[in-house]
Design goal:
heterodimer, A: mainly alpha, two-stranded antiparallel sheet, 14 helices, 4 strands, B: alpha/beta, Rossmann fold, six-stranded mixed β-sheet, four-stranded antiparallel β-sheet, 33% helix
Chain lengths: 330, 268
């Protein structure tokens, strides 16, 4: 493919194909949850982080499908995390699934007033506005002593359906909750991508003028995507803080947002599964680089990204999406 | 002159579009000056004029892309002068473009599915865009425009004429009351122009819809228009049946170029 040639056509799955993909997704989720029981703790933690962080990147991919990239998803990540931790500490609401939903809802509520404004912007303006919002949130969190200031605060261990989680199994249960929750959101995202609204989002990315002249609303599409991305990011933040047991303003710092963008670019915008594969890769590279090159792990990360851009410029998802598209045309 | 403008419902036909006293300036440039146009339902009206005469500005004002400085545009009894393009589209005005406005990374079928989805009253988060009824409707339109063989091809790979047809086919998914075609044959080779217009007119004939088309090829105009409106410097200089309008001195002088600008007026 030459650099100037347009990307391969995005595929809109037929109902039959969509059903098969959903079934495969459910089976994969079940397999991963069951497999967790046999995994070492370090691996379940790594995959928990990959799945919860992947949700934030999934939100960015959702925005990318409409042609914009948010550099400030750390904001919704932090809002979701703080909301879950505060609900746990101050309200005594401890259910893991409920906290994940609460984190997503809180992030959506915070994002809602900004959605109509941001839907007017594209390209670097959208990116910088979202970045600015996340950094304002960071500044506020650092200065708010009631929320622990720059040190943040701890939260206890959540429960699940009213049952306390024993020490020995807590990590595995939270892993299962995170995988199941992220898996359900991933399946919903897959359904959304194939829906009429999802298809129009892709059309917005290519030609906004024509979408308007066909009777579609570009701003509505962008606003809704921003809110869906906020929910995904917020629930990702909640799931992360439950496993870490601690939250601090760095959740909203620009480097955190950058990592989510990194994963989204690594994944490409065509595949939901690719987001979680990319997120897992990042966690693996980060973990092993931290272990073996503790002072230069960012260097390893940079080299890794350069290799990916060189050999998979359209992301990991292109490995199977493009191949599938060619197969469909053959 | 205009058989419809002065007499609403002339010839027993309902006036679908009425533009009255339209003025539009871009700085010192007069793009529209005192335009009064009425189009009856079912009419095929060609807008002609040299570049910069005000044809596309007029089309852009009808579709809401531009707002007139003064005057009003009424569609089927409803004032659409200040509405945005999306609202006007939803009231039944569709358009194609001089440079086809498509979704190049998508397939032909996906372009049609986007058009059908946008036309739908409410977009769904759940319902697949490739559901059977939508695909069947898209296929039927592709068939009517001889595009079925290109169904799975990516738009970026298509030749210009096919893109033009797809652009028009997408506009038709909205089942518009008024269709505006901006230079449907521009960029199409001389041999392909008539076959292409035949395909378009045959497809439009099935819909019995009102059509305004901007065109530079006078053979096309003479063959497919019921009526011609000629523009020059933002004014209408002729509005009549093709045979009459194309024969006027002003049209020959300023539009078709068959009369030298300094030639004496012919005896009519």
């Amino acid at each position: 493919m030459t650099p100037s040639s347009p990307p391969h056509a995005p595929r809109v799955a037929s109902p039959t194909r969509g059903g098969l993909v959903s079934l495969a997704g459910v089976l994969l989720i079940v397999a991963l949850v069951v497999a967790g029981a046999f995994m070492p703790k370090w691996l379940t933690f790594l995959l928990t982080m990959a799945a919860s962080h992947g949700l934030v990147s999934l939100g960015i991919v959702l925005l990318m499908r409409g042609g914009v990239v948010s550099f400030g998803q750390g904001l919704v990540f932090a809002v979701g995390g703080y909301a879950a931790a505060l609900a746990f500490n101050r309200l005594g609401f401890t259910d893991a699934l409920g906290l994940a939903v609460a984190g997503g809802v809180a992030a959506t509520v915070v994002a809602a007033p900004f959605a109509p404004l941001l839907s007017r912007y594209r390209g670097i303006f959208f990116a910088m506005l979202t970045l600015a919002m996340s950094m304002v949130a960071y500044g506020v969190l650092v200065k708010t002593s009631a929320l622990g200031g720059s040190d943040g605060f701890n939260m206890g261990r959540p429960t699940l359906f009213g049952q306390a989680l024993p020490d020995a199994r807590a990590g595995h249960v939270l892993y299962g909750v995170t995988i199941a929750f992220a898996g359900v959101l991933a399946l919903l995202a897959r359904t959304y991508f194939d829906s009429t609204r999802g298809l129009v989002t892709q059309a917005v990315r290519e030609n906004e003028l024509r979408v308007e002249y066909l009777g579609g609303s570009v701003r509505e599409a962008m606003s809704i995507n921003f809110l869906l991305a906020a929910f995904a990011g917020g629930s990702g933040g909640a799931l992360t803080v439950m496993s870490l047991g601690h939250i601090d303003p760095n959740f909203s710092y620009w480097t955190t947002s950058g990592e989510f963008v990194f994963v989204a670019i690594l994944a490409g915008w065509q595949s939901v599964l690719a987001v979680f594969v990319a997120s897992t890769l990042l966690e693996v590279v980060r973990s092993f680089s931290s272990l073996y090159f503790p002072n230069t792990w960012q260097l390893s990360l940079g080299v890794f990204l350069l290799l990916m851009i060189r050999f998979l410029p359209r992301g990991i998802g292109s490995l199977w999406v493009d191949r599938g598209a060619k197969g469909d045309r053959a | 002159m205009n058989p419809v403008a002065d007499t609403p419902g002339a010839g027993g036909r309902e006036v679908l579009l009425r533009a009255s006293g339209i003025e539009k300036r871009f700085g010192a440039v007069v793009a529209a000056s005192g335009l009064d146009v009425a189009v009856a339902a079912g009419e095929r009206v060609s807008l002609i004029g040299s570049n910069g005469a005000g044809k596309t500005t007029f089309v852009n004002m009808i579709t809401g892309y531009l707002k007139p400085d003064t005057g009003s545009i009424v569609l089927g009894g409803r004032d659409i002068t200040r509405l945005d393009p999306r609202a006007i589209t939803r009231l039944g005005v569709a358009r194609s473009f001089q440079i086809p406005q498509l979704f190049p990374a998508m397939s032909v079928l996906e372009n049609m599915l986007v058009a059908l989805a946008c036309h739908g009253q409410r977009l769904s988060f759940w319902r697949t865009a490739r559901r059977a009824d939508a695909v069947a409707r898209a296929d039927a339109l592709l068939e009517r425009f001889n595009l079925a063989e290109h169904r799975e091809r990516r738009v970026a790979e298509l030749p210009g004429g096919v893109r033009k047809l797809l652009d028009i086919a997408m506009a038709l998914t909205a089942e518009p009351r008024l269709l505006l075609l901006d230079e449907p044959t521009s960029g199409v080779s001389a041999e392909e122009k008539f076959p292409m217009m035949e395909i378009v007119m045959r497809a439009l004939g099935e819909e019995r819809m009102t059509v305004l088309f901007v065109e530079h090829d006078m053979d096309i105009v003479a063959r497919y228009a019921d009526r011609v409106i000629a523009f020059y410097a933002g004014r209408i200089i002729a509005d009549d049946a093709p045979a009459v309008a194309l024969a006027t001195d002003d049209v020959r002088r300023y539009v078709t170029g068959t009369l030298r600008p300094d030639a004496a007026p012919s005896q009519e």
